[in-house]
């Protein structure tokens, strides 16, 4: 089981046996471990995971019934969120809360927070106590290793955090952004998604931190090869400017960003972000008759 999970993680990240083994063990020994015909000590396993820029917590989550498969808790929570099944999502959160009270594992905690964040995104209701949110903030602002688990839980939890705490955690992630890019490009894109979720939240709230955070992000070089990330930043920046100065010139800038989605023929994204612009700017934006539709 452990070998199979290790193989799945290695294949998912397109890492060779040689790179994963490094100076810890031989590729042949690692291959035997993956195929269930050999063993690998815990210290060697940890070092091989480190060679793949992973952690024992992340690896363990693959074998955890709450996270590691298509029928896992988090997959079920995301499915309920996508179809706006609030009753099912709330039931899953209550179930996971009981599980966390019994297990007190970091994986169970992250899953609970992620699901609660998804619920909050729809309803605005925070189902977690302040003590749990403080625990999350303390963990993320102190971490020196922003892995997949930390990025995922933060990206899902932005709606649960107050402005000051949200800014503190986002700045912590920003400090580690370059290191994340060096080690794992897919995780780098996920990190940018979490940061833009933060900007999205600040913009929707009309937060005093919105303009400050736009400046922080503008100082970072967003690679052109993650085009939608770059576009989303410009879209949220223009929405913020139109919210601060609601005139036709600033509305037209938002229209232009939305027109790009029509140009690339992505109607689903166009409708999603058109309604997001209305959430930020108010129904006047759509009623004026000048949007990109």
TL;DR of this structure?
The chain is mostly helical. The chain has 18 helices and no strands.
Characterise this structure.
The chain is an all-alpha fold. The chain has a domain at 1-52. The radius of gyration is 21 Å and the shape is globular. The longest helix has 21 residues, at 185-205. The mean pLDDT is 87. The protein has 18 helices and no strands. Helix 6 packs parallel to helix 8, helix 9 (130-142) runs parallel beside helix 11 and helix 16 (248-263) packs antiparallel against helix 17. It starts with a helix and ends in a 6-residue tail after the last helix. The chain has helices spanning 2-12, 17-21, 27-34, 42-51, 56-63, 73-82, 86-103, 106-123, 130-142, 148-157, 163-175, 177-183, 185-205, 210-218, 227-244, 248-263, 267-281, 283-287.
Q: Low-confidence runs (pLDDT<50, min 5 residues)?
A: none
Output the helix-strand order: HHHHHHHHHHHHHHHHHH
- In whole angstroms, the N-to-C terminal distance is 52 Å
Helix tally equals 18
Helix content: over 70%
Form type = globular
Largest sheet: none
Average the pLDDT over all residues and give the rounded result: 87
Radius of gyration: 21 Å
Helix/strand class: mainly alpha
Give the strand content. Answer: under 5%
Number of strands: 0
């Amino acid at each position: 089981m452990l070998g199979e999970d290790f193989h799945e993680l290695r294949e998912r990240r397109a890492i060779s046996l040689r790179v994963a083994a490094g100076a810890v063990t031989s590729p042949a020994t690692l291959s035997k471990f993956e195929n269930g015909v050999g063993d690998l000590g815990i210290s060697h396993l940890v070092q091989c995971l480190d060679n793949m820029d992973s952690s024992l917590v992340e690896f363990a989550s693959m074998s955890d019934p709450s996270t590691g498969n298509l029928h896992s808790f988090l997959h079920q929570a995301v499915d309920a969120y996508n179809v706006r099944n609030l009753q099912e999502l709330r039931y899953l959160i209550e179930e996971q809360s009981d599980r966390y009270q019994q297990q007190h594992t970091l994986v169970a905690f992250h899953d609970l927070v992620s699901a609660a964040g998804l619920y909050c995104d729809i309803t605005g209701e925070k189902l977690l106590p302040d003590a749990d949110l403080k625990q999350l903030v303390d963990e993320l602002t102190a971490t020196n290793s922003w892995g997949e688990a930390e990025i995922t839980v933060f990206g899902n939890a932005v709606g649960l955090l107050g402005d000051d705490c949200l800014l503190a955690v986002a700045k912590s992630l920003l400090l580690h952004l370059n290191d994340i890019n060096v080690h794992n490009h897919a995780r780098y894109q996920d990190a940018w998604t979490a940061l833009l979720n933060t900007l999205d939240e600040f913009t929707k709230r009309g937060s005093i931190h919105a303009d400050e955070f736009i400046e922080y992000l503008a100082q970072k070089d967003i690679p052109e090869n993650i085009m939608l990330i770059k576009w989303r930043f410009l879209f949220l920046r223009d929405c913020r400017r139109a919210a601060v100065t609601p005139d036709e010139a600033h509305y037209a800038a938002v229209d232009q960003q939305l027109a790009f989605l029509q140009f690339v023929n992505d109607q689903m994204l166009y409708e999603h972000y058109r309604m997001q612009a209305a959430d930020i700017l108010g129904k006047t934006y759509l009623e004026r008759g000048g949007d990109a539709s």
